[in-house]
Amino acid sequence: MKMPWYLKLSWVLLNTSHTAAFCITPGYYLAAGLSDEMELSLTPSGIEFHAINSAYVVLNMFVCAKEIRLPHVTYTMIFGAIYAMFSLIYQLGFKNDPIYPPLDWEETVMTSVKVTLGIVVGVPFMNMFIFGLYKLRICCRDCFEMCCKGNNCFHESKLCCGGSRKCCMGSKVADISNTNRNGGRNSTNTTRTNLSMVSAVEDV
Question: Which of 59, 76, 87, 109 could be joined to 19 by an S-S link, Cβ 3.0–4.6 Å?
Answer without folding.
Answer: 76
